[in-house]
Amino acid sequence: MSLSDATPSKFAGVSLERPLIMGIVNVTPDSFSDGGETPNAAAAIERGRLMIDQGADILDIGGESTRPGAEPVSLDEELARVVPVIETLAAEGACISVDTRNAPVMAAAIRAGAAIVNDVTGLQGDGQSLKTIAASNVSVVLMHMQGDPRTMQETPHYDDVVGEVGGYLITRINACEQAGISRDRIAIDPGIGFGKTLEHNLELLRNLGAFARLGCPLVLGVSRKSLIGQLSGQEDAGRRLPGSLAAALNGVSRGASILRVHDVAETRQALDVWSAIGKS
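Given the sequence above, the corresponding structure tokens read:
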């Protein structure tokens, strides 16, 4: 791996002086952990407001589940789910990320006030995505995923998962820069759980430092994921908070800059204590 320029001091205008919390707001009926909890705009807006009060730095609004086996939704449905939420919360001053792989949704979200596009396909899922981001001033999270949500967990295979994921992310960073998206607008995410086995996920988590050295803020999403259940024996995703916090803090210690989480208050408390103890 290379691309070792210094990581920028801000992402989407938010200081990276300390680890950031990206609160997950899924306006979906079928997300793996919280599907149906915020089924409409009003409920999602209230969830977002609560997360800001609890210490979230960024809100990640999604209208299409990308859990293993998930089916895509229509563009009209995705737009109807996310745009009213983004408009309201952005107008109230929140830093908003839109979790989408569709360029028309990206464009609408940007018009509604989103400052970040978080794309599980690394801006490859829609041929217009790169142009859409390049024509704006928003930031982007480039994630690695092997396959697509419907099939990604059937037979994931890598000869060198760290090298292959890192190589993919470098390729996508280069593609963004060639399209006119400057490096200081780019964050990266190794895509824990997206086309990976438990051993693949553990290998990535053990080697997060390699990704943190690529010169872009590193986003880590481990909250309530299946690897926590596999390691702990806890089948109920809603009861995986202790394992999620352990993985998150370990990730920060290895270079993660942004934690994408369901449980904002608990993560904020854990980070505050961890940070205070670590000060010299």
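The chain has ten helices and ten strands. Try to locate this feature in the token string yourself.
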